[in-house]
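Running this now, will post back.
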Amino acid sequence: MIEPILQAWHLHKNNNLSYLIDQRINNIIVGHEMYCVINVALLCVQQEATRHPLMSHVLAMLQGETNPSDVPSSSN
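Update: finished.
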């Protein structure tokens, strides 16, 4: 389970999140929504639990009420 998370962090750090998106669904999803979901997921799997967002913030980000702009460059 750790390997996919580390790969996602590496892709995020190198601005290559598009590699996480299954190409079979790439044409039927809205790109910015998928990037939002990935960024929120990265916020939720940070090593330090105190840095995880509250569920109310997760919902607000997924509903487009706030931006998941505070995704750090690594899981630390």
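The chain has a mean pLDDT of 82. More later if anyone needs it.
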